[in-house]
């Protein structure tokens, strides 16, 4: 059975050689013990530090290795999608190149996969994390699981094994705004989870800034439910009810005591508060409209600048590929 390892890379020139040596050492043991064949599919997400050159050398020296390089940085979601599209294995393992996903765990994933599990998910513990980050993550997952239509588990990321059937199901979801954690949960299939100790990054710094994490969290909130829109409707009805009660109370006071309630401060506070609520609701609606805007454009998720792999089925050709295809058709016609 062929097993594919998909490895997204972004500015990993300083560690990708070390990662390849370590993962191929583990794969050599697995090939001898389990009898599987392996391939590595590296996806260079528009790196600027020489990662592509190192991947080219690795692929030239190791026939099991292929690489795909984007024309620019399209993001990890697009890199994972490309890796799944180019992977040919009966099972696919997604892992990062920074060695925070220990290659030694691939063995356990394969053992659980052979028991019939179609998703084998590695869940990292938060040992060593800052207390504030741990509390914030737990609060986020507790909140989001009350709102979205699938269940997300704290500590579960992209490090997992997918069967070919699960991979095909993920690839069938061609949405532009991708939130892979939710997509993996949505496709389902028989799944199991095991825990592993959080490994420190061996070189460099994380690419995830606070702003990127915040936007990623908002993507998760908006990608798998429409509850914020329903909440806007409920909040509008609540405010309308309160305003009606307040208006009735003002009229009652005026009828009993006469008109002596200027209420400038109350009016100013009310207008300011309602304006803020309206802006928030407009922003929520705008987020959904913006997602629709990107979906209807039907732009490709990524463009390939260089690769040593065949173009996968079901993907759109780039401009150069389309030109070559037109030229071939003209030659056939003549």
Structure in words:
By secondary structure, the chain is α/β, with parallel strands linked by helices. It contains eleven helices and eight strands. An eight-stranded mixed sheet has the order 7-5-6-4-1-2-3-8, with helices on both faces. The C terminus is likely disordered.
Q: Summarize the helix and strand pattern as letters.
A: EHEHEHEHEHEHHEHHHEH
General form: elongated
Report helical residue fraction: 40-55%
Mean pLDDT: 75
Low-confidence stretches: 316-334
- Helix and strand content put the structural class at alpha/beta
The counted number of beta strands is 8
Radius of gyration: 26 Å
Helix count equals 11
Strand order of the largest sheet: 7-5-6-4-1-2-3-8
List keywords for this structure.
alpha/beta, elongated, 8-stranded mixed sheet, 8 strands, 334 residues
Summarize the structure.
The chain is elongated and about 95 Å long. It is an alpha/beta fold. The protein has helices spanning 16-34, 51-61, 76-86, 106-113, 131-147, 164-172, 180-187, 210-223, 227-257, 264-297, 319-333, and strands spanning 2-9, 37-44, 65-70, 91-94, 119-124, 156-163, 191-196, 304-307.
């Amino acid at each position: 059975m062929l097993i594919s390892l998909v490895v997204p890379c972004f500015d990993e020139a300083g560690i990708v050689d070390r990662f390849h040596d370590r993962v191929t050492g583990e794969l050599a043991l697995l090939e001898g013990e389990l009898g599987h064949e392996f391939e590595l599919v590296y996806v260079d997400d528009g790196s600027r530090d020489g990662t592509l050159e190192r991947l080219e050398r690795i692929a030239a020296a190791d026939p099991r290795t292929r690489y795909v390089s984007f024309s620019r940085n399209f993001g990890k979601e697009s890199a994972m999608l490309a890796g799944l599209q180019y992977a040919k294995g009966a099972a696919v393992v997604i892992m990062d190149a920074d060695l925070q996903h220990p290659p030694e765990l691939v063995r356990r994933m394969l053992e659980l996969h052979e028991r019939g599990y179609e998703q084998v998910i590695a869940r990292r513990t938060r040992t060593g994390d800052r207390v504030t980050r741990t509390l914030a993550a737990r609060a986020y997952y507790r909140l989001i699981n009350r709102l979205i239509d699938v269940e997300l588990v704290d500590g579960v990321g992209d490090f997992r094994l997918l069967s070919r059937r699960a991979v095909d199901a993920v690839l069938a979801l061609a949405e532009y705004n991708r939130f892979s954690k939710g997509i993996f949960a949505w496709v389902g299939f028989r799944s199991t989870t095991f825990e592993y100790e959080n490994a420190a990054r061996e070189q460099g710094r994380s690419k995830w800034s606070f702003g990127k994490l915040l936007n990623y969290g908002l993507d998760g909130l908006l990608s798998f439910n429409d509850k914020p829109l329903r909440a806007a409707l409920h909040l509008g009805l609540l405010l309308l009810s309160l305003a009606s009660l307040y208006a009735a109370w003002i009229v009652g006071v005026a009828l009993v005591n006469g008109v002596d309630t200027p209420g400038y401060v109350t009016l100013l506070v009310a207008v300011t508060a309602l304006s803020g609520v309206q802006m928030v609701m407009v922003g929520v609606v705008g987020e959904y409209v913006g997602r629709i805007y990107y979906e209807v454009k039907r732009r490709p998720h990524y463009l390939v600048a260089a690769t040593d792999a065949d173009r996968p089925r079901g993907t759109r050709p780039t401009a150069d590929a389309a030109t070559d295809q037109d030229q071939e058709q003209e030659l056939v016609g003549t």
